[in-house]
Amino acid sequence: MPKALADGRIKLTILTKKPADPKAPTVAELNAGINAACQILKSDYKLGATASDTISEAALCSVGNATTYGASNYEGSITPFVLKDETGKTDMDESTAYAALAVKGTTLWLVEREGPEESTDYAAGDIVDVYEVVTDTPQKPGERSGWIKRTVPLGVQQAWENVEVASDASA
User: Fold this and answer.
1) Environment class of residue 141 by beta-carbon count within 10 Å: exposed (0-12), middle (13-18) or buried (19+)?
2) Would you say 34 and 118 are in contact if contact means Cβ atoms under 8 Å apart?
3) In terms of Cα–Cα distance, which of 169, 129, 130 is closest to 27?
4) What is the pTM for the complete model shown?
5) Short-list 49, 51, 52, CA closest to 75
6) Are residues 141 and 171 in contact, defined by beta-carbon separation less than 8 angstroms?
7) φ, ψ for residue 157 (rounded to 5)?
8) In tens digits, what is the pLDDT along the chain, a chain of 171 residues?
């Protein structure tokens, strides 16, 4: 199989309601979410696993340390663009990603798919990652040039990675 560039091939969907089964979200659940990829800054997008906790509990007879892995850890940070109307006011109807992420303490489910072009709807059999997150307060960037945007730290509560999208009939 050939390698594929990530450009234009990462679909990000924001769900305001938990999928009935996060280990097998349905096509209908995902396609009904907020299609956010075109409203998110690529350069600092981060969502996924980080290094697990380590446990060093070697048996008395062992020579040296014996490290094993414990609890999994995840991190997330997302920067939505803040879209403005012709008068300069934030247009929350158009800024759907920002509107979903703007309030601290909001629980959301972010679904990421890598592979098909971003504009392709979800289909049964797609492999996705589902993250339950809680938003922090949106932060203004230190560099105030470029597009108007806010960085939103995400507290990842749970993750279901590499899960298969179910057909609507199996829901």
Assistant:
1) middle
2) no
3) 169
4) 0.90
5) 49
6) no
7) -90, -45
8) 777 778 889 999 999 999 999 999 999 999 999 999 999 999 999 999 999 999 988 888 888 888 889 999 999 999 999 999 999 999 999 999 999 999 999 999 999 999 999 999 999 999 999 999 999 999 998 877 889 999 999 999 999 999 999 998 654
